[in-house]
Design brief:
Blueprint: E1 11-14, H1 20-29, E2 36-40, H2 44-52, E3 57-59, H3 75-82, E4 87-89, H4 93-102, E5 105-107, H5 113-125, H6 127-143, H7 146-159
Parallel strand pairs: 1-2, 3-4, 4-5
Length: 161
C-alpha cells in the first residue's frame, strides 16, 4: 500500500506484535524506510500522543466466516475513537457494527495493497465525509468508555447470581 501512496503519507506502527519483524524486513526489502516507521512499545499516554496526531486509524483484520478475527474488537479501535481519529477497517462484525452505528469511518473490501491505497486516497480527497466521521468520534468516545461499560458488566454479574 505504501508503495502506491504518495510520499506525503507516513505509516506508523506503534507497539509490538507477532508480525513486526516480518513487516520490518518487508519495509527494508521494498526500500520504504522513509514512509514506514516502527515506534515500538510505549506507555499508554505516549502511544496516545502518536494516535492523536494521526489522520486515520487502520484496522486490517484478515477475516473469513470461520475465523475468530471476524469477531475482533481490538483495543486500538477504542484508542482511535478516544483520540478522535476516523477508522478504516475490514468488515469484522463488531468493528463494522460500531463504525456504522456512530458513522466514524469506512471499510475496505479486501487487503489488496492497490485497493487499500485507493481507499486511503478517496478518504483524503473527501473532506466532507472525513470531517463528519471525525466529529462523530466524540459521541462514540462518550458512549464507548469504561465508565459506561463498567455499569453493564456489574449488571450482568449481578444477574448471574
Amino acid at each position: 500500500m505504501m508503495q502506491v501512496l504518495p510520499d506525503e503519507f507516513l505509516l506508523l506502527f506503534v507497539g509490538g506484535g507477532t508480525v513486526i519483524e516480518k513487516l520490518k524486513r518487508m519495509v527494508n526489502e521494498l526500500k520504504l524506510e522513509s514512509k514506514v516507521k516502527f515506534i515500538g512499545m510505549l506507555p499508554y499516554h505516549q502511544m496516545m500522543n502518536y494516535t492523536r496526531q494521526s489522520y486515520l486509524g487502520l484496522i486490517f483484520e484478515k477475516i473469513d466466516f470461520t475465523d475468530e478475527h471476524n469477531f475482533a474488537l481490538p483495543n486500538r479501535f477504542f484508542d482511535y475513537v478516544k483520540a478522535g481519529i476516523p477508522v478504516l477497517s475490514t468488515k469484522a462484525i463488531e468493528i463494522k457494527a460500531l463504525i456504522e452505528r456512530y458513522n466514524i469511518g469506512t471499510f475496505v473490501d479486501n487487503l489488496n495493497p492497490a485497493h487499500l491505497a485507493e481507499k486511503i486516497m478517496q478518504i483524503s480527497e473527501d473532506a466532507s465525509s472525513y470531517n463528519c466521521w471525525k466529529s462523530n468520534t466524540a459521541k462514540a468516545a462518550s458512549d464507548l468508555c469504561w465508565e459506561n461499560e463498567e455499569k453493564k458488566l456489574i449488571e450482568f454479574m449481578n444477574n448471574i447470581r
